[in-house]
From TrEMBL:
The chain crosses the membrane at residues 30-49. Residues 124-297 form the Flavodoxin-like domain. Residues 449-698 form the Radical SAM core domain. This is S-adenosyl-L-methionine-dependent tRNA 4-demethylwyosine synthase. Its EC number is 4.1.3.44.
Length: 784
């Protein structure tokens, strides 16, 4: 009976159980239901809060619970265009009990549309530390200049800034600025804060250490959001140091500014508005500072106008921020063995083979609908590469776009980071450009020819090509064809479009950890153009006009072609350096490796070599050999020597194919095993050099870039008094061009540059000593 009564007990039982176990036994079902319901409700409430990281606790540091200091709005909303900058009263900072909370990132909506009634103002705070007063003076002077510049801008744009406040880090309470943002008493005048830091470095104990400790502790304090300053509009740091005592960054030059920059990235959750600047007070402080200030001003105006830092590759607030590295495999025209690029799924089917002529038909069809709706008359198709009989019976076809926006090719290319310009051109920034911006090394073309990688634009006016090379890492994305059968975009449009695309991508690097302000500023002036991205640049019917536009802006041109378009090659006007890719030394090997669409591919290659031979006293001509083990290395040295003898190029670049990824390339069976070791590349180069010498040809091994597995053989024409001069005098090239015109008469020797730096010459590795060596994860590599 007792048992039965226990089972039937409920909240109304007049005989409640006497001990805990009895109670549990009797009420367990009800208790469980209540407990589960409670937790479910709590969870639901928690997950629907606007921000999940609200911590309603006082931070570990004591914060005085005083009234908020009141602040008069600087101006009323309707007066804003006439009222000058007004200094923010020092009492602006909040002193009340603090509710530390994280913030969701603001939507990147432009402020312009709402600025008239938002009444937001931007307050720049210039923090500095100083022991021997250099930075103090600079900070005050800097703030004055900034203020003057903002007054002008505010008058123009009706956006008002408060006058910058200069704050000595030795005098302020860090809690007020670095645990949360200063708050204003007047909620109707919301203020956006922008922090600037001027930090000298000291390897002795100074106030800098307190600041750094504070930033670090705040980031690690579990009671505070890891990015409590994410509401900042932006921040940027400038370091002062002395290279006399601390010559390099590794030896401590500006080390504390770098640290402040790093911790602020974490605390602000990626709000680095402009790259870290650094100046040496005895050498270049004025130049570097004004450069940095110029950049900061531009970003400030943008941020104040739009409420955001604009598009960008975000920096990182996470623990690995200094190790942030990009996925590689996007080096310029490097040939890379990698996983075949997957074209987006269509009807659930993944397409991994290449777009070929049949695919083009499909692309054309898909774009047909688009152009049918257009009222524009279709441009006339140009077929300039095929000289076969024309099919007179075929009905005239409307001309289509090579890469229409709706095509899978477009989607795949943009996913890979290309900006497609018009309907057949592309631009992308290569990993060396990114690397050079961060002082982590430039591409081999810097070592060999003095190309500044951070000022180099990589582009192509034709995404289409006439080969299907087994190692092409654009498999599945680039269209192919033997004839130009597409709409032809005007060169002006391509030129403006690729420049805009390039600059936009550079700007996106602004917040990336490690980007140097100095290089960033330089990168905003393109000096070189590598026409080699993907596809075949001379396929584009207006390539000469396009080159003329580059040169008119004093942008050098390195043009790479695939030795399949002899007529276009012959008609090519001046370029700074002209490349022909030689992917194999004999017909069979070339067929296997390049899988050319032209039936007379070998004859075309031979004709191209003859043209190059003719041009060698006009252009700097280069053979590019890409070594793919198992395809074009073994037993081919003799054949390559024959080709060199035939074309007599100024230079022969020999490069091992690059590996990136794990699987085979487009069914061609390429794996890591096809990537030669550097020792194998050098062995091949030595053998080729010997063969050339045996034939009495004046060539020698001039330079190397072991990092990219690349070696340069040069003609004796570029050896002066026993020293190699493989670099280019770009200034002289443009002078010659401007004096004598694109068809003018001059020789490559006329714009031969200075001596190849010793570190780049054969036997010395080729790594620029100014740069820091890091591995793929960004870890420093010690010099061996
Ligand atoms: C004791 C001492 C230590 C220094 N340590 C470094 C250092 O580690 N790295 C660096 O780049 N500069 C270092 N400097 C150079 C200062 O950062 C540089 O002179 C700076 O301009 C000083 O700014 P201030 O006059 O505002 O204090 C040091 C200078 C002194 C006097
Ligand atoms: S030449 Fe220019 S595009 Fe090519 S790898 Fe170097 S920096 Fe990049």
């Amino acid at each position: 009976m007792a048992m039965a009564s226990n089972h039937t007990t409920d909240w109304g039982d007049p005989n409640p159980p006497r001990d805990f176990f009895e109670f549990w036994h009797v009420h367990r079902e009800v208790i469980l239901v209540v407990v589960i319901s409670f937790f479910s409700m709590a969870y639901m409430i928690y997950t629907t809060l606007p921000t999940r990281r609200v911590i309603n606790k006082t931070p570990k540091r004591d914060v005085a619970a005083t009234e908020l200091a009141s602040i008069k709005p600087a101006i009323s909303g309707d007066e804003k265009s006439e009222v000058p900058l007004e200094a923010l009263p020092p009492g602006v900072v909040a002193r009340g009990p603090r509710r530390i909370k994280g913030e969701l990132r603001k939507p990147e909506a432009t402020r312009e549309s709402s600025s008239s009634n938002s009444g937001r103002r931007t307050q720049v705070l210039v923090f500095y530390s100083s022991l021997t007063t250099t930075t103090e003076k600079i900070a005050n002077d800097f703030a004055q200049k900034l203020s003057a510049s903002l007054v002008g801008y505010a008058a123009e744009r009706k956006d008002l800034f408060f006058a910058p406040n200069v704050l000595d880090l030795a005098q302020i309470d860090y809690d007020e600025y670095f645990i949360s943002l200063p708050k204003t008493a007047d909620a109707t005048t919301p203020i956006d804060y922008f922090y600037l830091f001027l930090i000298p470095s000291y390897n002795i104990d100074t106030i800098n250490d307190n600041l750094l400790e504070h930033l670090q502790e705040t980031h690690h304090d579990f009671r505070i959001d890891t990015s409590p300053l994410s509401g900042l509009l932006g921040y940027s740091v400038f370091g002062l140091g002395d290279r006399e005592g601390w010559p390099t960054e590794e030896e401590g030059f500006c080390f504390q500014a770098k640290e402040v920059d790093r911790w602020m990235a974490k605390l602000t959750g990626r709000k680095r508005a402009y790259p870290l600047g650094m100046g040496d007070k005895k050498l270049d402080l004025t130049d570097r500072l004004s450069e940095w200030m110029g950049g900061v001003m531009d970003v400030l105006k943008l941020a104040a106008t739009t409420g955001s830092l604009g598009e960008g590759v975000s920096g990182s607030g996470d623990a690995d921020e200094s190790d942030f590295e990009y996925a590689s495999g996007d080096d310029d025209d490097e040939i890379v063995v990698e996983e075949a690029a997957a074209v987006p799924k269509k009807n659930g089917k993944k397409k991994t083979n290449i777009d070929d002529v049949e695919d083009l038909g499909r692309i054309i069809k898909s774009s047909q609908a688009e152009s049918n709706g257009s009222k524009e008359p279709a441009p006339i198709a140009i077929d300039f590469t095929t000289y076969g009989k024309s099919n007179t019976k075929r009905a005239p076809q409307p001309v289509k776009e090579m890469v229409p926006k709706t095509s899978p090719t477009y989607t795949a290319l943009t996913k890979q980071g290309y900006s497609i310009v018009g309907s057949h051109s592309g631009v992308k920034i290569c990993r060396w450009t990114k690397s050079a911006l961060r002082g982590r090394g430039s591409c081999y073309k810097y070592s060999f020819y003095g190309i500044a990688s951070h000022q180099c634009m990589e582009t192509t006016p034709s995404l289409s090509c006439s080969n299907k090379c087994v190692f092409c890492w654009r498999h599945g994305t680039n269209p192919v064809g033997t004839t130009w059968r597409w709409v032809v975009d005007p060169p002006e449009m391509i030129f403006e479009g690729v420049k805009a695309g390039h600059y936009q991508k550079i700007k996106m690097m602004r917040g990336v950890p490690g980007v140097r302000a100095e290089r960033f500023a330089e990168a905003m002036r393109i000096r070189h153009c590598a026409l080699s991205l993907v596809g075949e640049p001379i396929f584009y019917p207006h390539i000469n006009e396009f080159l003329g536009m580059l040169h008119a802006e004093r942008i050098s041109s390195f043009l790479v072609c695939n030795a399949q378009h002899p007529d276009q090659l012959a008609a090519l006007k001046a370029v700074t350096q002209l490349y022909v890719s030689i992917d194999a030394s004999n017909k069979e090997s070339l067929r296997k490796i390049d899988r050319p669409l032209h039936r007379d591919f070998w004859e075309r290659l031979q004709r191209c070599l003859d043209i190059l031979r003719e041009k060698r006293f006009k252009h700097r001509t280069v053979f590019r050999l890409t070594l793919v083990k198992g395809f074009n290395v073994d037993d081919e040295v003799e054949g390559y020597a024959d080709l060199v003898e035939r074309g007599l190029p100024c230079f022969v670049e020999i490069k091992g194919v690059t590996y990136c990824g794990t699987s085979t390339s487009a069914g061609a069976g390429l794996t890591m095993a096809n990537v030669p070791f550097y020792a194998e590349v050098t062995e091949f180069v030595t053998a080729l050099d010997k063969k050339l010498k045996d034939r009495g040809l004046d060539y020698g091994i001039a330079a190397e870039h072991a990092h990219s597995c690349c070696v340069l053989i040069a003609s004796g024409r570029f050896r002066v008094d026993g020293k190699w001069h493989t670099r280019i005098d770009y200034q002289r090239f443009f002078e010659l061009l401007e004096e004598r015109g694109a068809d003018g008469d001059w020789k490559p020797e006329d714009y031969m540059g200075p001596e190849t730096p010793e570190w780049a010459t054969w036997g010395n590795g080729g790594f620029d000593p100014r740069d820091e060596r890091v591995d793929r994860k960004g870890r420093k590599i010690e010099a061996s």
